[in-house]
TrEMBL record:
This is ATP synthase gamma chain. GO terms for cellular component: plasma membrane; proton-transporting ATP synthase complex. It is a peripheral membrane protein. It comes from Bifidobacterium actinocoloniiforme DSM 22766. Produces ATP from ADP in the presence of a proton gradient across the membrane. The gamma chain is believed to be important in regulating ATPase activity and the flow of protons through the CF(0) complex. It is found in: Cell membrane; Membrane. Its main location: membrane. Gene3D superfamilies: 3.40.1380.10, ATP synthase, gamma subunit, helix hairpin domain. Pfam families: ATP-synt (PF00231).
Length: 310
């Protein structure tokens, strides 16, 4: 039987852990409201610039630009994985790593050569421990990413994408991140950011583009005119598009990390309290058994003395 001292030691250590888990949960709770607001506020801009670029290239079949397709055959592909700097976030980082591994495996099987970019200390440690070659890493403030880190990441990836195959460039760019849906649901997504996946012009058109009664739909044409040229306009839009999408991914990943940490710490706190209650019951049962044994020994000794006197 486990001694009472062992039960008391385990209760004390579990109580210390429960306090740590509860403190982490309270910290995450204080941060989640702001992180969620920042992530949701960044989404309209990112969606707007994505819809604008997609509409431009979808309505103009004669555009030849790297934002749509690179003209050279290049098997190298860039993959950016957004992980966390700190732990205590449940399965947040492990889910990102698992999805990244699946993507890398699919790219390898298709004959392409993935180049890995990692954001977050946990992901960097994972791949370095397994001797996985990493093109570049970024660490720090994954739960509060700023514009500076978004600019640095977007600049690095844009340089890799715009470079030729002889210069070590890549032909595609993928991002693996966690999308913040709500406080309970955070979904891991794989986004192919470049080149754009185009939709048909008829599918991309909105209700504003619909023909009026009596008009022929086939005579409708997109009202786009580029000055000085389509290539220069897209050259100017491309850096803003990359930075906007990456910044949005960083912000929604930060909100997901904070929500995951709050949920994980809430569960850990409840488990610690349940374990303390279970250990306390066992300690009381052990104490009661000890008292019963002592009483039995005293009564037995008293009976023995009475028999000797008789």
């Amino acid at each position: 039987m486990v001694s009472q001292l062992a039960f008391k030691s385990r209760i004390a250590s579990t109580s210390s852990l429960e306090k740590i888990f509860n403190a982490q949960e309270m910290i995450a709770s204080s941060h989640i409201a702001k992180a969620r607001k920042v992530a949701l506020d960044a989404k309209p801009y990112s969606d707007a610039i994505f819809d604008a670029v997609q509409a431009l290239v979808a309505h103009n079949d004669d555009i030849r630009h790297p934002i749509i397709k690179k003209n050279e055959k290049n098997p190298r592909v860039a993959v950016l994985a957004l992980t966390a700097d700190r732990g205590m976030a449940g399965a947040y980082t492990s889910s990102i790593i698992r999805e990244t591994e699946n993507l890398l495996s699919k790219l390898d099987k298709s004959g392409r050569q993935p180049e890995l970019f990692v954001y977050g200390r946990r992901g960097v440690s994972y791949y370095k421990y397994r001797n996985r070659q990493i093109a570049k890493t970024w660490e720090g403030d994954t739960d509060k990413p700023g514009v500076r880190i978004a600019e640095e990441i977007s600049s690095t990836l844009m340089d890799a994408y715009m470079a030729t195959a002889d210069q070590g460039g890549v032909s595609e760019l993928y991002i693996v991140f966690t999308e913040f849906v709500n406080m309970v649901v955070q979904r891991v997504r794989v986004l192919r950011m470049l080149p754009l996946e185009l939709v048909q012009a008829s599918d991309a058109s909105s209700a504003v583009d619909a023909p009026l009664p009596g008009e022929d739909k086939h005579e409708m044409t997109a009202l786009y005119h580029f000055e000085p040229s389509a290539e220069k306009v897209l050259d100017s839009v491309l850096p803003k598009y990359i930075q906007g999408r990456i910044h949005e991914c960083l912000l929604t990943a930060a909100a997901s990390e904070t929500a995951s940490r709050q949920n994980a710490m809430h569960t850990a706190t409840d488990n610690a309290r349940g374990l303390i209650d279970d250990l306390t019951r066992k300690l009381n049962a052990s104490r009661q058994a000890s008292i019963t044994q002592e009483l039995t020994e005293i009564i037995g000794s008293a009976d023995a003395l009475n028999k000797e006197e008789e």
